[in-house]
Amino acid sequence: MIFNGSPKAGGNTDFLIDRFTTFLGERDVVKFVLREMNISPCRGCEMCSISGRCVIKDDMYDIYKKIENCKSFLFFSPIFFGGVTSTLKSVIDRCQPFWARKNILGKKFENNNRRGLIALIGATSFLKGYECAALTVKWLFNVIDVAENRTLYYMNIERHSDFLNYNIDNDIYKTIEFFGESEE
Ligand SMILES: Cc1cc2nc3c(=O)[nH]c(=O)nc-3n(C[C@H](O)[C@H](O)[C@H](O)COP(=O)(O)O)c2cc1C
After folding, report:
1. Residue ranges of the NADPH-dependent FMN reductase-like domain (predicted)?
2. CA 123 – ligand 1 centroid, Å
3. Whole-number Å distance between alpha carbons of 105 and 165
4. For ligand 1, atom 6, which residue shows the shortest CA distance?
5. What are the Cα distances from residue 12, in Å, to 36, 87, 136?
6. Residues flanking ligand 1, CB < 6 Å
7. Rounded to 5 degrees, what are φ and ψ at 97?
8. Are the beta carbons of 79 and 133 closer than 8 angstroms?
9. What architecture is the 2-181 domain classified under in CATH?
10. Is there a contact between 34 and 91 (Cβ–Cβ < 8 Å)?
11. pLDDT tens for the 184 residues of the chain, in order
12. Strand 146-154, strand 114-121: pairing
């Protein structure tokens, strides 16, 4: 599962994801461009603590179904004010039913050999902003039983050419290797 948390079409996050998906090619990849989906923020109604389901019927239901069965999770987000974008944060907050199922209703995921990647893109080199965003996604990983994860920080990225300061091909290679290990 690939999550694109950027609200900007054709921006730096799209560029990076295109590089990754070109390599991933034939694999069974499903990409969620969150800005194109209708996903409301969590209302905090706590109905999921009773039913294990969200009362808001929107595109998040496509994501819920996939999260249940998926083994590999790739999250891409620009840094906005020292965190992930509100586009992605809404999706993370809407995963509260998984928290409720696990911690209140006592249900476990069948597949617990899961792995995740967090790729964060920002215009500055202010590390704390990246760490804060990474922590938010790791919090979700903890809830959905993604035990192993790796994080990539792409700092000082204002335009596509700034990625030339990074060895993206190597990052992709290492990522594929990392996800491959979980299948052995
Ligand atoms: C509202 C807003 C807030 C931002 N806040 C930060 C920030 O806190 N730290 C940072 O490094 N970059 C920040 N940036 C810069 C973006 O993270 C950066 O330009 C990124 O490459 C944009 O990715 P995109 O083209 O996919 O939207 C911010 C940009 C916007 C529009």
Report:
1. 2-106
2. 6
3. 47
4. 80
5. 17, 16, 21
6. 6, 8, 11-13, 78-82, 121-124, 126, 129, 157-158
7. -55, -35
8. yes
9. 3-Layer(aba) Sandwich (3.40)
10. yes
11. 999 999 999 999 999 999 999 988 767 899 999 999 999 999 999 999 999 999 999 999 999 999 998 999 999 999 999 999 999 999 999 999 999 999 999 988 777 789 999 999 999 999 999 999 999 999 999 999 999 999 999 999 999 999 999 999 999 999 999 998 766 5
12. parallel
Q: How many CB atoms lie within 10 A of CB 150?
A: 14
Residue 92, amino acid: I
Alpha helix positions (H), 30-183: 48-51, 60-69, 86-93, 96-103, 127-143, 168-181
Tokens of 57: 């019927």
- Report d(CA 134, CA 138) in Å as an integer: 6
Residue 180 in tokens: 């491959």
Distance, in Å, from the CA atom of 26 to the CA atom of 77, rounded to the nearest integer, reads: 24
Please identify which residue in the block is written with the tokens 């020292």: 82
